[in-house]
Amino acid sequence: MGTLPTDHIRVGIYNLPTLREIPLPHNFQMKSSIQDILRNDSKQLEAALNIDSGSARIEVQCLLQTVLQVNRAWLLTHSEQLLSDEQTSRLSALYERRLNGEPIAYLLGEREFYGLTFKVTPATLIPRPETELLVELALQRCRRVAAPPPGTHRSAPCGCIPQQGACRVLDLGTGSGAVALSIAHARPDAEVVAVDASATALEVAQFNAQRLNLGNVRLLHGNWFSALKGESFDIIVSNPPYIAAGDVHLAQGDVRFEPRDALISGTDGLDDIRRICTQAKAHLRPKGWLILEHGYDQAAQVRALLQQSGLKEIFSARDLSGIERVSGGT
Prior knowledge:
By secondary structure, this protein is an alpha/beta fold. The chain has 2 domains: 29-101, Orthogonal Bundle (Helicase, Ruva Protein, domain 3); 123-144 and 163-329, Rossmann fold (3-Layer(aba) Sandwich), CATH 3.40.50.150. It contains 11 helices and 9 strands. It has helices at 6-14, 34-49, 53-68, 72-77, 85-99, 104-108, 132-141, 178-186, 199-211, 271-280, 299-308, and strands at 110-113, 116-119, 168-172, 191-196, 217-221, 233-238, 284-293, 315-318, 324-329. It has a 7-stranded mixed beta sheet, sandwiched between helices. The protein has a two-stranded antiparallel ribbon with strand order 1-2. Strand 4, helix 9 (199-211) and strand 5 form a beta-alpha-beta unit. Helix 2 (34-49) packs across helix 3 (53-68), helix 7 (132-141) packs across helix 8 and helix 10 runs parallel beside helix 11 (299-308). The chain is elongated and about 65 Å long. The chain starts with 5 loop residues before the first helix and ends with a strand.
């Protein structure tokens, strides 16, 4: 058998189409497996947002769980699974928003707090682990109550039937309801009132109260104490706005996307805490407690404000990072 001319071979090679010359469908998408997405997207997220690798991987896992509607165990046992075109598109849209800094809690629509899951939206602050200290301190001071004698039940304004002498708790600026509802869930014998100036935030809190099936909570629309009509409480808690208007942290991280009126409080960040301290004593029962979350460097100033308002036994408590995060008095 004879050989082909060299020129003919060259022509044949050069006439072969390259990959760039093969036309692809306009809707063509490379399919990726769950393990590929976890590996590649986690690395990109870690670099883009300057977060640690573990957090980046968890966030990608959460986005995958949301898109696929599965739990973490399913992801781990189906790592070779390929995403459909529709699932890939939905994941890409969420992932791009996260790359641009949008909080993962808003993308997922929920956040875990004090062992419970809460719906969150851009109308509410994102519940944070350090705020669990506020719940712990309130629960420590919530009075033990005795069950009422048979036939002595009375209806409360919230529509529930409280225990006789029940501890009454007020949460000012409740947002998603995380603090108030965590207290109500831990102490079903307590009467909890939650107030917020934002009607939109109260809708989120109402949803969370219903999802947790809590009947011992009353939600009120108002600015601090304005809707309370002389009511008094054993414990008043609040995680109010406490960031100064010019604070550089407002341009960093999740707070860029959170509601400004729930973050900023005057030029020194203490306007709302001053207002609460001034008005709280009129709404505290004898031996009642006012407990406030505040900024990492505001403890001394808040203690002074509590003292000026006539409260005693003033204290500050440190969070898990060792920061004086909550202060209060009676």
